[in-house]
Amino acid sequence: MNRRTFVTATAGGIALTAGCTSSLDGFGGGERGTVRFYVSDEPNRIDDFETLDVTVSAVAFKPAGEDDESGGNESETDGGSDASNESETDDGNESDAPESGRGGWDEYDLDDPTVDLTQLKGPKATVLDELDVPTGEYVAVDMFVADTHAVLTDGTETTLKIPSERLKIRTPFTVAADEELDFVYDIAPKKAGQSGRYILTPVISESGTEAEIEEVDATRSGAENE
């Protein structure tokens, strides 16, 4: 697992590898904590699927302070209803597009674990990685999805739309020195109105450090996916 810190807001972003001087040097005073990063699935439309594999390539944390422009959460519906839109503007461009080069984001590469969301309903959650992070307050967590493979219960395959290939949750949490903190990132498939298509969205109400966890092993490594 590699750590990358974005420090400038250029078009492609500039990534500095761990050990280089960055805008986050001194965040947490050099102290570190551990974030056990889980994925779970709020049972919205998951029963439409025989399997729903999601491959995660990286996660990113946003420390509080400085240019704290974390923006809003991606849209989620209330009460399990179908999504009426795909969080896009009228001209078809995705709204609230992520700024991968924006200063302050700490990004952590994963080994492309794949999880089957049909095995992670409700409080069931699987840990993707244990991340060594600077202590301090954080305001946002983004998850990068490299790939999905979905089979409906009738045997047909379908694709899921993921806005900007990056799922976004804005919720505050604090990492203390030498602490092991569990963070659950809940995601769910939701139907895009009457289009028959599905959107993969984060579920803020079921995510965070206070979420209930019934730990299961539902991951496959990147090597197993090849």
What report would you give on this structure?
The protein has 226 residues and is mostly beta strands. It has one domain. Helices cover 2% and strands 44% of the residues. It is built from 1 helix and 16 strands. The strands form 2 sheets. Strands 1, 2, 4, 5, 6, 8, 9, 11, 12 and 16 form a 10-stranded antiparallel β-sheet that branches. It is elongated, with a radius of gyration of 17 Å. The two termini are 19 Å apart.
Secondary-structure topology with pairs:
Blueprint: E1 3-6, E2 15-17, E3 32-41, E4 49-63, E5 106-109, E6 114-116, E7 124-134, E8 136-152, E9 157-158, E10 160-161, E11 166-169, E12 173-175, E13 180-191, E14 198-202, E15 214-215, E16 219-220, H1 222-225
Parallel strand pairs: 3-13, 7-15, 10-14
Antiparallel strand pairs: 1-2, 1-5, 3-7, 4-5, 4-6, 4-8, 6-16, 8-9, 8-11, 8-12, 13-14
Quick structural overview:
With 226 residues, the chain is mostly beta strands. It has one helix spanning 222-225; strands spanning 3-6, 15-17, 32-41, 49-63, 106-109, 114-116, 124-134, 136-152, 157-158, 160-161, 166-169, 173-175, 180-191, 198-202, 214-215, 219-220.
Instruction: Work out the strand percent.
Output: 35-45%
Number of strands: 16
- The number of helices is 1
How many structurally independent domains?
1
Distance from first to last alpha carbon:
19 Å
SSE series: EEEEEEEEEEEEEEEEH
Main β-sheet: number of strands, strand sense, barrel status? 10 strands, antiparallel
Helix-strand category:
mainly beta
Average predicted local confidence, pLDDT: 76
Which word captures the global form? elongated
List low-confidence stretches.
1-26, 75-102
How much is the radius of gyration in Å? 17 Å
